[in-house]
User: Fold Metal-dependent peptidase from Goodfellowiella coeruleoviolacea.
Amino acid sequence: MTTRQRKEPAGDSPGRRPRRRASARVAGGGRHVAARPAVDLTDRQALLACQPDDPAVVEQARQLKDAALLDFGVRDSVVVSWLYAKCHHQIPTTAVATAAVVAAGDGSCLLLYNPEFFVQIGLAGVKFVLFHEVRHLVHRHLYIDEELRADPVFDLAAEVSINHVVLTRLGRKDLPTRVAGPGGKPEPVGVDPRAVYRRYRADLAQQQLTPLSYADFVATDLGVYHELKRMSTPLVAPADACVHLVAADGAERGGGVPADPETVALVVEATMAEAVRAAHRGNGVARGEMLDLLDRSEGGGERISRLWGSLGVGALRGETPKTRRVEWWKRWLADTLASKLRDGTRLVYPKKQGAVLLALGHDPMLSRRGQERTKVVLIALDTSGSMPDAVVEWLTSLVGQTDGVESHWVSFDGVVMPFVPGERVHGGGGTNFQNVVDYAEGRLPVNGRRFEERPDAVIMVTDGYAAEVTPADPDRWIWLITDGGDDWPDRHHPPMACHRVHTGER
Assistant:
């Protein structure tokens, strides 16, 4: 990240209520937004009653929407694809001027889209708008401070930040355009980040202040906000720039699109967890998206840092906090194991399920298939010391709930002893890691039989006190070091995945 210094205006720190100054409205947004009926945006029957006169327009819009979602699933955005997969109701309706994702209080999400608007902007425009809506939902979940959200300048900062990300990730230079009305000229849809930046740069030059470069200006979500607050006359977004800035009765800043906080949190965090898992399985698009979200939320505070930590996003860069509670090592192990079992996921069309959905009048969706071949995991428990039952139970649950995984269990001290979870295992004297390595690599027979599988991952649960070893493929080995143990695998050359297990906590 580029190091930069800002001249912060007094009273504009995130922890204090912003000063009220005169503001200027930035150009942008559709100026031909038709009046819409005041409809409860969670009432599906009422929404479906608001339809264009021409059924062909509805069908064309539906096809554009489906094509856009397919592109997201195949190549453009894992986050967008997963979130819309959780929108089980995707409703064409003129009750919204453009499109919106509604988070209802019952835990459901609805995608609403205006068919006439979608037809006007075409496939590229539809992809932009759908991506924009998902980033709005993520933005709302990340930045929940009420004083911040009450500032109109923050609304504009959100539009600038979101549109910059969408343009960048879709490889676009310009906003989509539409022509509203006969003989009209094409007009951009939404707020143009570069147009806002030009206004910001001119304002600061007039104050004899140094503006940031465009790249630094849009580098973080809160950075955009802080820079806009440096303007002598801060800009605010026009009410018609985005449906999120217009209330159902037409009043500005009313929050007309329902966004139940609990539903938003549930859907967004589930979506991001899926994206992180995809990233650990080797999905480059998912990895790029999640790291971009991590970077853009820099300076967002402890709550956001805890969110990324709980999701294990930092591990995508190899960043692992040294001290974590038991929930964190569980997350670390889940993410690390997923990375060892890396195999691409595939989009498939479920024929039977699709036929049922069509019969019920719903649009069928693509689904994801898990790992393409069965993965083998070997779990080895050191019984030379005490091994808490809670650790064994949780490991059994983790491996058992991972699709496409075949697990093999051994206990070891001086010798290796295969067992089945639930059996009582007893330790003897001494500890020998090399025996486990030899068994895993098929050289050491136990009860007259060699281990004939080639494990994709080996999980060692031990206190670490024994002679160090170097497996043939260290990258496949995961070491969980119990309380007071020696985490030498972390210092080994080459290092192996290693984490401490705080077994005193449940």
In short: Residues 24-277 form one domain. The radius of gyration is 27 Å.
